[in-house]
Every structure is written in structure tokens, then in C-alpha cells.
Design goal:
14% strand, 9 helices, ten-stranded mixed sheet, globular, alpha/beta
Length: 323
């Protein structure tokens, strides 16, 4: 997540906030039953590799993030996900040295709906190596945001294998998020120039550990659209809730969803399970794989599959902005 400058003095001392959740709306249509099972061992292996010391903290423009880019390209190629551009690499237009978003596409199966796009995204960059002389200098960024990338990769594999998307799906791993949302700002302008037909964007940000709440995750910009209630309708569970801290810190504006909302004015929001109480190592060298809750990340991804499937197949655009 882009650095939260204004909340750092309170980040590790946040008092327990009151919470409320969004009950699932009654719907005449039952949630889609997904028999596909997210593989926990694959979740673990992917996250362990992406957050390893070998990636050197994945700072945009460094050799470390180059290694991460190759890893992500290889993953997409292995899972038969095509590049959206000529290659998987989308060069940032707003960064001084070569840097790349990694972008793949899974074409929709419906002749008409495939003209509309669902964006599933997460940022793969982090803050690199500490300048201070200390034993551990690598900011591995396991939670921020290798965990989100891992979940999106698993969703990409799901759609690639099941071909269950009538709409086309753009899989995006952003660089430059920690530099000021540069990767998403660069990409969204290119897509706008192409008259990209965006339906909605679901961005995943920091899901490495669970919350002690009566819902699975919170959404940023809760009241900007009906996405929270529709996801709960699609899963048939209390999947998404409202976190007051999210509104207080205006997290909607601090991840890559905002770049897409700012240009397209469509429902573009982030899901997270980092609630300012459950993880003490935000932008810290201790944000490492060993602290990640692999069963939680697996369960999070599994629970969202009916929702992302319904988003990709509904005959009309059911997720809408609130007026």
C-alpha cells in the first residue's frame, strides 16, 4: 500500500474501532456454486517466492523487481494467459528508469459480453532495501502486497482453467504503487485512449493475515458503490464489511483502484484484511513470508470465487456507483 504518511504516528497504536458489517441481500438468484478448489500449497509456494530475499524488496526500477516481473510473466505464460499488449510488460510512462506493469488478458466466452472488461489487480512492487546498517535490510513485502498478488494470480489460474468468464478479464500486477500509484496512473491513460470498456475493478491489497471480525474483509470507498452488498449477495456470506478506520484514513485514494476510478468513474475498489490491529509490520523488514497465514489467504481467495465469477457472467452490469 502506498505509504500512509499522515497515519504513521498512530499506525501501531490504533485503538480498537467499532465495526459494522453488510448483511447479504436477499436475492432471487442463488450464489454460484464453485467446485474448483484453490490449492493451498500453490498459494504458499507462490507467496514464498515473490516475497523472498532474492527479490530484494521489489522496489520499482531495481534488479529485484525485474526478477519479480520475470516470475510473474512465467506464471501467466504457464497458465496460458495471453499478454494484453504485445508482451506482458507495460512500460510505465511516468518513471525515470525502465519499469513495467505485468498485464495479461483472459478473453470472455460471450460474443457481446467479452467486449466489457473486469480488472483484477494488485501491486507487486514494494519499498526495497533499507539504507540503515542493520542485520535485516530487505523489506520483503509479504503482506504488502505479495499477498494480494498471490490471490489475484490464483483467480487468474481459476478463470484460465475453467473458462467461466463471459466478460473479458484483465489481470494486472502494478509496479510503482509505492512511488505514488505510478503504474496504475500510467496504464489507465493508455486504456482510456483505447476506449477500454471497463465494467469494474477489484483490487486486492494486504490480505496476509485475518481480522478478528464477523466479516472476512473490508472494502475501500464502502459507500461509493453497491459492490460490498453485491459481493455478499454473490457469495451468500458475510464476506465484506465496513471498517471505520478505512473511511477515517481515506484508503480508497491510496491504492491502485483510485487511478481507475479517477479516469473511468466506475466501481473500482480494493479489498483488504489489514485492519491496523492485526499486523505490526507495515513497511517494515519484518513483513515476511513466515508471518503470513496461508490458510487464510487460501480461504479468502476461495470465498471470492463465486463473486468474481458472477461479476464476470451477469447479463447486466449489476455493480453500480451510488448516486
Amino acid at each position: 500500500m502506498k505509504k500512509l504518511y499522515f497515519l504513521l504516528p498512530v499506525l501501531f497504536f490504533a485503538c480498537k474501532s467499532s465495526t459494522s458489517s453488510v448483511p447479504s441481500k436477499d436475492s432471487s438468484s442463488k450464489p454460484i456454486e464453485v467446485t474448483y478448489k484453490v490449492n493451498e500449497a500453490e498459494i504458499s509456494d507462490f507467496l514464498k517466492t515473490l516475497s523472498s530475499d532474492e527479490m530484494e524488496g521489489r522496489e520499482t526500477g531495481t534488479k529485484g523487481i525485474e526478477k519479480a516481473a520475470v516470475f510473474l510473466e512465467d506464471f501467466l505464460k504457464k497458465n496460458n494467459i495471453k499478454p494484453y499488449f504485445k508482451t506482458y510488460r507495460d512500460t510505465l510512462t511516468n518513471f525515470k528508469s525502465p519499469a513495467f506493469n505485468i498485464v495479461g488478458v483472459i478473453e470472455g466466452t460471450d460474443p457481446e459480453l467479452k467486449k466489457e472488461f473486469v480488472v483484477l489487480s494488485a501491486h507487486y512492487d514494494h519499498i526495497g532495501i533499507e539504507k540503515k546498517d542493520q542485520a535485516d535490510k530487505i523489506n520483503n513485502g509479504a503482506n504488502d502486497d505479495a499477498s494480494g498478488v498471490t490471490s489475484i494470480a490464483a483467480m487468474a489460474k481459476y478463470f484460465s482453467e475453467t473458462k467461466s468468464n463471459k466478460r473479458s478479464i484483465l489481470i494486472v500486477f502494478f509496479a510503482g504503487e509505492e512511488k505514488g500509484l505510478l503504474g496504475s496512473k500510467s496504464l489507465v491513460q493508455k486504456l482510456k485512449d483505447q476506449n477500454f470498456n471497463l465494467y469494474t475493478q477489484l483490487n486486492i491489497e494486504m490480505i496476509g493475515v485475518p481480522m478478528k471480525r464477523d466479516y472476512l474483509a473490508y472494502i475501500t470507498g464502502f459507500d461509493k458503490s453497491n459492490m460490498a452488498s453485491k459481493i455478499n449477495e454473490y457469495t451468500g456470506k458475510n464476506t465484506i464489511g465496513f471498517l471505520p478506520k478505512e473511511a477515517e484514513y481515506q484508503l480508497f485514494y491510496r491504492s491502485d483502484n483510485y487511478s481507475f476510478y479517477d479516469v473511468f468513474k466506475k466501481p473500482c475498489q480494493s479489498l483488504s484484511t489489514f485492519d491496523f490491529e492485526n499486523f505490526d509490520f507495515y513497511h517494515h523488514v519484518s513483513d515476511e513470508f513466515k508471518l503470513m497465514d496461508i490458510p487464510h489467504i487460501t480461504a479468502f481467495t476461495q470465498e471470492l470465487l463465486p463473486a468474481v465469477t458472477k461479476i464476470a457472467v451477469s447479463p447486466t452490469q449489476e455493480i453500480t456507483m451510488n448516486k
